[in-house]
Design brief:
The chain is mainly beta. Helix content is 13%, strand content 34%. It has one domain: Alpha-Beta Plaits, CATH 3.30.70. Keywords: Iron, Iron-sulfur, Metal-binding.
Amino acid sequence: MNFKPKKTRVKKGSWTIFLGLCKGCGLCLVKCPERALYFGKDQGIYSTPAPTIDSQKCELCGLCETFCPDSALRVEKND
């Protein structure tokens, strides 16, 4: 299994998931106001589905990063 971080470019910056930290709890999906996150083909540390981002919907609000209990997400805005 590959636990390398997966970085996705979005319109205002980037979104990164650290698969080796993600338990697949889904809290980030619930908290996203744009519904930009969904469970994709990648798997987290316990072979649970990990979130994937729809780069067209994400506004980089950072709520997914804030609510992730395992610090498995990073949101970076362009300056």
